[in-house]
Design goal:
about 300 residues; alpha/beta; Arginase, Chain A; 8-stranded parallel β-sheet; 8 strands; about 35% helix
Length: about 300
């Protein structure tokens, strides 16, 4: 039995298109508490957190969107992760992907204190490896991996005292990468698998290799699941749709393999925009995937009728 700690993050500071702040309540309405409890887990919903008060330094580029809000959310989320991890498995219900700046920062601090390495699995259409200087849009939901790996330029943000090593990060499902990110990424030891690679070899092979390395290192595993990892025909409620994403079967296989490994210590569910959903379909898909990561098997899946 796992102590699952649900943490709502009604955050829209990472991007200009709005709606993700409604995500936490959508997950609750879709029954995430009940789904995890039915699997035998203890489930505690601590409610929604709020950002810390913060100001943005002049060193940040002018085009960065809501920098003070991003700094405040990062600080509050890092603290929430550090508080929750000694007591169970925190599930951060977003909220845009900018929340991962804080959730991973807190997880990295906790791992360092425990004397264990942190690994990050990043199922996403995008690499999110920007810095405030490299992002053309100024939207920092595209910068979490740049921040937690210790890239320069995040003036005013909490210090990253325990950067996540690039070789401890695995990106799955890529299919939209900015040229600046691609060039920087290819100079690192980060593992990345685009949809062509998944089409050619399947999702199980690269994921199994990554999970094996996490286990060998006695690592802690943070999973940061973006809605746009999935093909938009299955999960339309996201503001950054990119055709050709993972299928429902591939996504459930991924989450079941994570469950089988017993390695996951924290989870992000991000970029759900209920304003763009169809009868709650995407929220339900994400809840079902969270349930698969925590023990639901194919024979246990409920039949869904969206009529």
């Amino acid at each position: 039995m796992t102590n699952c700690i649900l943490i709502g993050v009604p955050m829209d500071s990472g991007k200009r298109s709005q709606g993700c702040r409604m995500g936490p309540d959508a997950y609750r309405v879709a029954g995430i508490h009940e789904a995890l409890k039915s699997l035998g887990h203890n489930v505690e919903d601590v409610g929604n957190i709020t950002p810390d008060a913060a100001t943005a330094p002049a060193e940040l580029p002018e085009h960065v969107f809501e920098p003070a809000g991003m700094i405040g959310w990062t600080s509050a989320l890092a603290r929430a992760a550090q508080d929750a991890l000694p007591n169970g498995l925190p599930i951060f219900m977003g909220g845009d992907h900018g929340l991962a700046l804080g959730s991973i920062l807190g997880a990295a601090r906790h791992a360092a204190k425990a004397g264990r390495p942190l690994f990050v699995l990043w199922p996403d259409a995008h690499t999110d490896y920007h810095t405030p200087q490299s992002t053309g849009s100024g939207n920092l939901h595209g910068a979490p991996l740049g921040y937690v790996t210790g890239r320069d330029g995040f003036h005013g943000f909490p210090e990253v005292t325990s950067p996540v090593p690039h070789e401890n990060i695995c990106l799955l499902g890529l299919r939209s990468v900015d040229p600046a990110e691609r060039d920087e990424l290819q100079q690192t030891a980060m593992r990345y698998h685009d949809m062509r690679g998944i089409d050619e070899t399947g999702i199980a092979r690269p994921l199994a290799a990554f999970l094996e390395d996490v286990a060998k290192a006695d690592g802690m595993l943070h999973v940061s699941l973006d809605v746009d990892f999935l093909d938009p025909s299955f999960a339309p409620a996201v503001g950054t749709t990119v055709p050709g994403g993972a299928t429902i079967r591939e996504a459930h296989l991924m989450m079941e393999m994570i469950c089988d490994s017993g390695l996951m210590t924290s989870l992000d569910l991000v970029e759900l925009n209920p304003f763009l959903d169809e009868r709650g379909r995407t929220a339900q898909v994400m809840v079902d995937l969270a349930a698969s990561a925590l023990g639901r098997r194919v024979f246990d899946r409920p039949t869904r009728a969206f009529t």
